[in-house]
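Throughout this chapter, every protein is written as a compact record of paired, labelled lines. An example of such a record is reproduced below:
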Amino acid sequence: MAPGPSAEVSPIPAPVPEPFARPAPAPSSSVASPRPAALGENAQPVAPTPSVETATAAPYGGQEGGPVIDQTAFERILNFGVERGISDLHFEVGHPPHLRLQGDLLPAKYPPLRPEDTIALAQILLGKKRYAEFYSDRNERDVTYTIPKVSRFRATVFWQQGWVGAVLRVIPLVLRSFEQLNLPNSINDLCVIRRGMILVTGATGNGKSTTMAAMLQRVNQTRRAHIVTIEDPIEFLFPKEKSLFIQREVGTDTPSYRTALTSALRQDPDVIMLGEIRDYETAEICLKGAETGHLVMSAIHTPDAVHTIERFVGMFPPEDHDSARLRFAETLKATVSLRLLPTIEGHGRVPAVEVMRVTRTIQECIRHSDKLGELYHHITKGKDLYGMQTFDQHLLDLFHEKKISYEVAKMAASNPEEFQRALTIE
């Protein structure tokens, strides 16, 4: 088994100067620890390299006493993270940059950030005009940032305790296939659906956007369709293949999700992808889009199919719950729920996936809230005929395929006792 990540992420190897090196009392002759393996199958260990002598290093790549971190130093940090296969980068005053590697949040071996450091980062990410607005109204901003031939990043810039902070999510330049993402084959079957609604669910950072991008790319590869995406901000960019894409960013190309969704219905779409269903207005317009013969795809922050139904209906006023259930039962075609788990080798994470296809029986469960408890049973029974699966069924498959350990599988199981019983029966 490969070793897991160390408690600290080592600095950028020489000869590149440390972007966060600051003057120290005396030169350091220590040797940096080996960097942890990156996510993915191509990760290779790197031999230890000498650390930069901080006694003579200028802070943030500039002259000592000069300007704070600049774009070159910032991109050096981003490159450093991408090379190691991290998923997120955190920048907060009083802490060194933190990198999320294989699900763990690890501090980089750099000094704590100063207020002027995170202000400089915000100015790089937002530009002068948007930073002035951000400084004035104190509202967080979502933007994308690109390093050509390296990666794209979804950045959230915000205020906390009077200081500026930022969190960046890595967005690969190349779209990955279902096979590369270790997604079950049944999700491929969802891409032939022409109308209705498909919801991809899960907690933050569990692969919802990546899964939806893979589904849209499969449509792009297999049919001539007009696809409209509405995102905040735009994440994945799609290559020119069979489909025609319009990608709109809230705040830049359109003032709101509601405006963009209403407009999208007049743009001759075959597929509408909404980055996230957040409230009653977006839920209502998504229903209208699905009811008028379009395929609507979106994400929602719920752990499984049952909670997705409850959350979606709960966005409507109480007096409209019954009608919302009826409409939702008619338009929903499938839910895909995701949980990322550490692999048995320790080199990355693999998704455990619940897939629900809406049959007539499941429609009845959606229409009547007292029947929602039966949903788990119907998903379990629909594996062979409809390609459905519960989390626990997929956990069994992943365990038998030696992709996850028994301890991880049991911890992630929706019903650990039933999971243990299923293993015993087998």
Summary: Residues 115-137 form the longest helix (23 residues). The chain is about 35% helix and 20% strand. Residues 1-60 have pLDDT under 50 and may be disordered.
